[in-house]
Amino acid sequence: MENETETNASDGNATGDATEISGSTDGAEPVTFGWRGVRAGLLTCVPIAFGVAGYGVAFGVLANQVGLSVAEAALMSALVVAGASQIVAVELWADPIPIAAIVVTTFAINLRYSLMGAALQPWFKRLSASKAYGSLFFMADENWALTMRDFRAGNRRGAFLLGSGIAIWTFWVASTVVGALAGETIGDPAEYGVDFVLAAVFLALAAELWEGRSSLAPWMASLGTAVIAAEALPGRWYILLGGLAAAVVEVIRHDR
Amino acid sequence: MIGDGALSVDPIVVGVVLAMAVVTYATKTGGLWLLNRIEASERLEAALSVLPGAIVIAVLGPELAAGGPAEWGAGVLVVAVMWRTESILLALCTGVVSVVALRAVV
Predict the structure, then answer these.
(1) Is pLDDT of A90 > 50?
(2) Is residue A106 in a domain?
(3) Do residues A60 and A94 both lie within one domain?
């Protein structure tokens, strides 16, 4: 399948090979970073980015209602690129702006991304720092899921997260502008089933990630913890706690 | 409100947006940054290996628990289509179409 080597002009590699190999010892194939990965990510993610756009419109409407200008709402979408935290931030918005509450809440809601980034590490450790950390700016729930799927299918296209992230970013910013301009005239995203896109993508991924009985114990730990934590705690702590509970269960099993 | 300055930008708002952007970027990069700096033991690798599935389940659990028969029915269809076709696009379309249809009837 991988019959061409991807090149990236910005990266001088001592081996003369354009692909990157980290100093790792496990001898696995290198992870590439080039246009094919960007393109694959972009094309795979466009249909899902339409779902993201449903939320972008909703965010734009909310931002407009609390008094943010179109430019300010677009700026937030372009620089923060994290839907749930942005929607909560504009819900907290007031005059004067509760800066500390907004920034701390944003951090808490987005802490789950650390776990998602950690899950990419087996592949991303083989990329240069600028490529890995640059790509992570564009990481959202949806394109993280698609990227994990692509890596686990045996593809080693390091630019997939970037490509799929560019699709998300473009739709997210554009739909924010649409929502902020349109104000209240646009209906509820649930009317078009857009609110189900994230759940559908994650369900499809779960169907693929299932590895039989060995998945059962960590998944049950994650499910139980997440459902209870979602009831008991604000924000998105439940995602982080569910992931950590599964990791603890797996470590205990590993030690036995 | 939008009429009197769609392009107006308040410096304080820009400051808050920048602060939000910085902490968000820190969360996105923090996990990778930390893992690249510590020696990965076998136990840590075992823990990391279950993370993708566990995160997916942690996102889904409360989301589906908050839903109703329409979401559950559509969810079953998504998984069924995924197992048969392995096409995420087909599974996604099935899910969105069926959730809209099921919400109209149940």
Answers:
(1) yes
(2) yes
(3) yes
